[in-house]
């Protein structure tokens, strides 16, 4: 059911010097599937991340923040699927710490050099013994070439593994960026999404990487929604190993910074959009652009109202140009001083509403033509400023209901 | 598919002295259905209403507010289904004014004594000629006994007509309250819902009625949600004809006021809950209560996050106690200083989570037992204050998608 999902071959994913990946079949929830990933980083790597703002954030999210704040030099990430370790209270914290301790011992590093991640069902105890028992297998098959298997190892309701890769040349040096992501439901990232990991061999100063991760997250993972449900486990991590002759990127006003930023944004947007293309039950990939706003916040607010409306999403599913539903969503988005008589609405190139009312030249068959496409852009022009925002989302189909009515059973 | 929807017989609906109702088959969108309602009020009636806060509010909503503000004495309501007359710009305003003018002429009153209402598809021109042509038929069959037919005349995707009636005795005088409502999708009223009309023979002073309508709307129509989509046309109107020997209710500190307020709240809650019971595709009726909050606003915010979560709603549809999804919704509701370690979660009488984590005594089969019921209460105890709020909602099923993918076609 995925929408124009690109064919991803293991051979397209460039190895990143300084990053090795290994998996285990640890039987966390179901047998015979890759459900644990270990990503080992070379000494000297710079790592930065952003995490969910959900107040019921998972135990591993809390521990990740602690370990990043310790600045001990992150040496490995460990991810399990099948269980989110969220809503699990103190036992959940102990399970996450035990996981970090076990992996640290196996890799001869300290526990606060490990970043832990979990994804799966909320409110169930993490089977930490099975997870720890799987770590030796994951370490045994660590290799730089295993990005595709890494993408497979973090899937839950994903139907396809999600990965992307870039190679750019800066000042004669080849910089590689390769990343993986997962997610198909409970997707309305609010800081980042569960889970996005990008590795690069660039050498990037910590404050520069911290700022870059936020910049990129806001324009990629924080600009997608499937169902409006912000996960308890969202995490987006960039690891820069510095395995290159290119000098450290230590300031934001150099051409090298700009080239790296653009490549990181590009790969992050691709990884985020792959999540939407594989959205639970998705049959359409929808881009919502809101322009002419007073500030980005109000543009995003209106874009999310459209992107979350079950009525708008089912109309896309049906290819039905019932476009008044989009006006209704704009109207209830909560921008209280909105003058609707200044608003234009486009569906791709078709001007549907002009100055707040139906465009006299709009013909139903033009709307119908666009609605039948698998990729559609909704463009709202507010006419009250210069700010803009873009959101990527999908439709709401029968399969979304089926998938989420069946997820645990 | 409606959930425990009561059997409503025309004979149960008490006539309200001073209110007559008549309908027409005006062919607004489809032939052979009642699609126009006229409700005539006796001279001297007091009328008050609340309306949608959607910025794309429909032309009739704008005109209703104008006519109520004119204080000319409302003498009739006119409602059409099949077309919302929203997103229709200036032509929509002209169509609504033409409707009021035509009805005013037929009833020998002035145009600003008419309140107009529309419900149906947004962004399509109102066929005002057909609407006006139907008015004589509606006037010809005006009668006090026609509340059931009135409920039928305002249905859109409703599967059942919605009406309720109360008779109370105050100071030896019989006071009647009878009302109708409609709505099954695009339901997250924000002031009131499209459409609720209550008539009563009580005599109520205008400022008292104005305050009462807001009080009641917040505890009935403003406490339901189906899909989170706030309609462009929501309207809730109470008309008090004063056709009684009971003295005017002119202050809020009398036993008569309290008795009338309680009866009005009771009938309004019933009418609002009928909308949820007939929610598009609904198979479960869910009560969400959030207690122990600092203020009502934060309790409502959390209740809506739960009530709108597609993941929570599909879990109810599946009778799957995947209750971590409720914790996730609480966590992303936007109450930023929430201490989750103080939160308890109950499903009916089952304590699922205690102090922010899974209750050690919770057994899956207890959750399963409650989830299988057709009526379920979710109770969240925040442990940070004395405020509380209640919301009524339904699940998200395949039929919701089918209904909204097919609505216009």
From TrEMBL, chains A, B:
Keyword Transmembrane helix listed: no
Chemical reaction(s) catalysed: N(2)-acetyl-L-ornithine + L-glutamate = N-acetyl-L-glutamate + L-ornithine; L-glutamate + acetyl-CoA = N-acetyl-L-glutamate + CoA + H(+)
Record-annotated active site: 193
Keywords attached to this entry: Acyltransferase, Amino-acid biosynthesis, Arginine biosynthesis, Autocatalytic cleavage, Cytoplasm, Multifunctional enzyme, Transferase
GO CC terms: cytoplasm
InterPro entries linked: Arg_biosynth_ArgJ (IPR002813), ArgJ-like_dom_sf (IPR016117), ArgJ_beta_C (IPR042195)
Site residues, Involved in the stabilization of negative charge on the oxyanion by the formation of the oxyanion hole: 119-120
Gene Ontology biological process terms from the UniProt entry: L-arginine biosynthetic process; ornithine biosynthetic process
This enzyme's EC code(s): 2.3.1.35, 2.3.1.1
Marked site: Cleavage: 192-193
Positions contributing to substrate binding: 156, 182, 193, 280, 404, 409
Similarity section: Belongs to the ArgJ family.
Self-association state and partner proteins as the record states: Heterotetramer of two alpha and two beta chains.
Protein's name according to its UniProt entry: Arginine biosynthesis bifunctional protein ArgJ
Organism: Pandoraea aquatica
Gene field: argJ
